[in-house]
Amino acid sequence: MIRTLLVRGVLLGLLAGLVAGVFAFAAGEPRIDDAIALEQAAASAEHSHDQGTAAHEHEHEGVEVSRGAQKAGLFLATGLYGLAVGGVFALVYAGLRGRVGPRSDGGLALAAAGTAFAAVILVPFVKYPANPPAVGDPDTITSRTLLYLAMIGVGLLAAAIAVTTGRRVGGGPWPRWTAAVAAFLAPVVVAATLLPGVDEVPDGFPATLLWQFRLVSLGTQLVFWTVFGVAFGWACDRAARPARAPVPA
């Protein structure tokens, strides 16, 4: 059973990753091109002609991958992301099946996918949203990565607390759901308040372009988890159906 779920998760994760890649390519790449153009224009305006020539030469020395190759590599990245996430999700689903969540396989898959999106994607996004090129100091990339990973850990911990709380509270679905939501939000709010903020948006950067990029980044993840959750749930429900008895001649 675990092997079947793992293969199912990997294949459907690849499918969802490619679909998310199509969305990211159509909606996100134009924003990245605009951000890169702004970065190059700002660099040209800050340097003199001689300094600009040296910076231009240094830039061409440092660029190893062209924009065309990056756009093509987007689908490779989202596909590999889908393979990895699909495999991990299948293993977690196998551990949850029959123990927590909805009784039906499809319902459990949808609930697990929604919980994963909220804990791993939405919680970090609220505190540390994605930024396009030209936003962010290269010297702080390590600290920013650690803070982002810390918020992912908080989201996973909050999800575990919420599930445990919902199982222990009695009195019907409404008290359980209310207690679970409160248990999920409490550690998230505390962590978002205590962890330092990151604001490295340069002056004059278009706010519209910034939030368009951030919404596209969040939308790409939403597309992935929606496609994957629905497909994985449908496949689990279909596999759980009893086989039809052969019709006698």
TrEMBL record:
Entry keywords, A to Z: Membrane, Transmembrane, Transmembrane helix
Pfam families documented for this protein: CbtA
Membrane-traversing stretches: 74-96, 108-126, 146-165, 177-195, 215-236
Presence of the UniProt keyword Transmembrane helix in the record: yes
Protein name: CbtA family protein
Species assigned in the record: Actinomadura decatromicini
